[in-house]
Amino acid sequence: MKKIIPQRRFSISAAAVIAIAVMGIITALPSIAQAQQNPLPSPVVCNASSTWVSNPSLPGDVQNTDNCSFQQYMWQTLLYLVQPVAAGSKVRQFETFMPSYGIFVDPGKTPTPWGKTPKPTYCKGPSTLKQSYVFSNLTLQAGVGQALIDKSLNRVFYGVSVNKPAYDFITGCGLQEAQCSLSLAPDLVDPVGYKVVDIPNLYPNLAFPTGAMELKTAWKILTPDEVTGNTFFTTKGSVQAPGKTCMENVNLGLVGMHIVSKTPSQPEFIWGTFEHRNNAPYCSNTSAPPPLGGNWTFYNPNCTGSSCTTNHYAEGKATQVCTMHPWGDPTLGTMPNNLTCGSTPPPGYICDPDTQKFVIQPTTANLQALDLSVKAMLTALPAGDANKLWANYSLVGNVWTAKGTLPPSVQVQVGSLSGANNSMETYVQNGVSNIQNPYNCFSCHNLDGKNKGQALADAVKVQLPPAGLSHIFNLLNLKTKGCSTGVLPSNPMCVANGGPTK
User: Fold this and answer.
1) Average per-residue pLDDT in the chain?
2) Number of domains in the chain
3) From what superkingdom does this record's organism come (predicted)?
4) Is 89 part of any domain?
5) Residues of the domain holding 205
6) What is the spatial distance between Cα 495 and Cα 499, in angstroms, rounded to a whole number?
7) Residues 389-399, mean pLDDT to the nearest whole number
8) Is residue 79 a part of any domain in this protein?
């Protein structure tokens, strides 16, 4: 893969457009309590590159160790993934990723070969299957097991997919079979009588290969007005809500996307997350108008009564959503458990002066600056350019560890320490009970695992190998067998990535 393209080389016209737009917006923005966008404390240089659109490429690694480079890496990655696979094609790069249901198949079946389009065993799918068609019956958010319900009382649907390096690793090590990889799924209980491969002890270095990428996408069923509004990336899909016996063929709009990418310098993966700009207002200013006009997608300003509590799940009722920590900044909004830096004791890591100076403040400033730069660049594109649509999305959070350190403990985390996506982590934006420090992707995607015990509460805790950072194994089909010898296969792919030695 190509190295990331230097970020500050613009054509004169592109540079002028971006510079004028960014400086104009920066000087005009009011405070967070007054507007939907935050101002920058002073002009910050973290710019988009016009080459991300004129000559899109997938960056091979983060260009430098500075904070801005990590934000640029993630935006360049997104703009590559949304490009057509070939001139004239309607299929985008990210739509060629293998969905989880093509990997974790029924017993006796083999994973869908790479490059083929899988179709789940749901009824009423399309008669003619296209690569970009979305299937989903996933509606429960990770960590809480609750759904996000829109104003039409439809659930938001989720998809999980991987690129070829990740696919080759999973299938090469036989990890699509439950008895092979169940020890990598900390949220699943081992079925009684299962003899599961003890990966933490046998293969403590098992890891996804460099270049592996995982996507999680969030889709809402579009209303007719949302279809004609043309602010969402849209696709055709078949979704199956709980309690329904068949699938419903619908128009879907992209409301959120996680991009999780392993690079040579970052073995812990870089965890970036994008949202549609009209998803929800900030909790500090719910009266703000949607930045794209129209209405907020997941917030009704006219809602009254007990069912209108924000970021609260109620079965059969629309969820009222607001952003608790803009840009994943734990110092913006209410800290966990209503603590402040003046509390005794305060949330230690959040309130540490060095953390604020060297982690929190640079992240927020660079995300804001790059957001404005990308928006200016994309909106300046000619009419009819498909890339203009992505000005309707923002990089709202991005987290990694210093020098790629594992395990990803709080003390080595860098980036959006309270990063969350409104469409995927609606109910845990401020952590969970008794959490006093930042709550982000690493709060769940760490190396904490279990190696025995039928009840999760009784399981013996162990440290997982790096492959356990991904929670894709929570989608395992528990009826599948595999690894009858008690070990992973010793093929070159598995051996090269921490599996059995020759």
Assistant:
1) 88
2) 1
3) Bacteria
4) no
5) 96-358+396-496
6) 5
7) 98
8) no
